[in-house]
């Protein structure tokens, strides 16, 4: 049985982060994601999760300046120590909060640095991160992000993601499969999912174009969700979209696609 989650970094943004937990619970969710939870202390997060009987299922390793248009940390030669410190923080949060998976953002190619040098740095950092996360019994993930919204991102396509797995050669490392990014890269969502099922450790969804809730774009979510439900995949399926309108009015997909007993 797959598990349904909601991303609190992108949904319920009408209120401050600490107030989003109650709204997630009120809408029937038992699991939440937070991209970068580090503005809140572990103690505050733990108390809030317990108060609302929620589990935190995914966080990202801090990514430096990536979200501000920079190159990030994981694939930048010379920033290995900064990446290691960021990984320390993510492991500390994940361990104390019982977070099962941690996502590592590859980052962008650095200006003036050869692509191969950036990728070699990324793969080396991923080997270290995968081993350290696995030792802590945390699932390491890498995410593919489309190069239209994030030009220069080091891992954009499924082929690039699979090549990264081949280069890192760590059995714990899996792919985070984001429907929006895959659709932006013109992948057939259902077939791509099935073809790479053994390497997928987490799913996120948003419609495309627009990155809004399902049924606002061109993705056939009826087909995709049924494909996932009928597959051996038993991980999380997380809503990570920018609501078109108010968040609380964006959940028509919840009863439409997830009223069946195979997803909780």
UniProtKB/TrEMBL annotation:
Pfam families: AP_endonuc_2. One of its GO terms (molecular function) is hydroxypyruvate isomerase activity. GO terms for biological process: glyoxylate metabolic process. The keyword Flavoprotein does not apply. Keywords: Isomerase, Pyruvate. Residues 21-250 form the Xylose isomerase-like TIM barrel domain. The active site is at 143 (proton donor/acceptor), 240 (proton donor/acceptor). Belongs to the hyi family. This is Hydroxypyruvate isomerase. It comes from Acinetobacter calcoaceticus.
């Amino acid at each position: 049985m797959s598990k349904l989650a909601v991303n609190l970094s992108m949904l319920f943004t009408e209120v401050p982060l600490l107030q989003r937990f109650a709204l997630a619970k009120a809408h029937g969710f038992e699991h939440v994601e937070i991209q970068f939870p580090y503005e809140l202390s572990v103690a505050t997060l733990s108390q809030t999760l317990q108060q609302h009987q929620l589990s935190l299922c995914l966080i990202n390793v801090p990514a430096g300046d990536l979200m501000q248009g920079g190159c990030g940390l994981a694939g930048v030669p010379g920033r290995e120590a900064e990446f290691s410190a960021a990984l320390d923080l993510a492991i500390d949060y994940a361990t104390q909060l019982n977070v099962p998976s941690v996502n590592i953002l590859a980052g962008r190619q650095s200006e003036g640095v050869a692509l191969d040098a950036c990728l070699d740095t990324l793969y080396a950092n991923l080997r270290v991160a995968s081993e350290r996360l696995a030792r802590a019994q945390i699932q390491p993930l890498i995410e593919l992000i489309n190069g239209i919204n994030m030009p220069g991102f080091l891992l954009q396509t499924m082929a690039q993601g699979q090549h990264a797995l081949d280069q890192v050669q760590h059995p714990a490392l899996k792919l985070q499969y984001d429907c929006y990014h895959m659709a932006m890269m013109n992948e057939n969502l259902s077939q791509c999912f099935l073809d790479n099922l053994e390497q997928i450790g987490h799913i996120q969804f948003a419609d495309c174009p627009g990155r809004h809730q399902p049924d606002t774009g061109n993705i056939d979510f009826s087909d995709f969700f049924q494909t996932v439900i009928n597959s051996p995949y038993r991980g999380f399926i997380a809503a990570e979209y920018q609501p078109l309108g108010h968040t609380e009015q964006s959940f028509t997909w919840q009863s439409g696609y997830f009223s069946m007993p195979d997803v909780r």
